[in-house]
Amino acid sequence: MSRRAVAVVSGRVQGVGYRWFVRGRAEGAGVSGSATNRPDGRVEVVLEGAEDAVAAVLGVLDGPDAPGAVTRVDVRDEPARGVRTFTTG
Which of the residues 3, 12, 25, 37 is marked catalytic? Predict the structure, then answer.
């Protein structure tokens, strides 16, 4: 089953390699999506793929290996859209 999750990550997550960290973890898990800086200083992470793979990537967003200093991760599920690549913006 495919899952699409959108996570908004708060804290010191811009300018510290956070988006590239997420991209590496997502691609390693076979998950598509994006990691994008938001104007308010947060990073929006979209993950789409197998349910267990998406859950695994969500689990590292605020883990000890995440660069910067994550203070909060808000997650919502959306209908899958068939995304096939991972982008950073």
Answer: 37
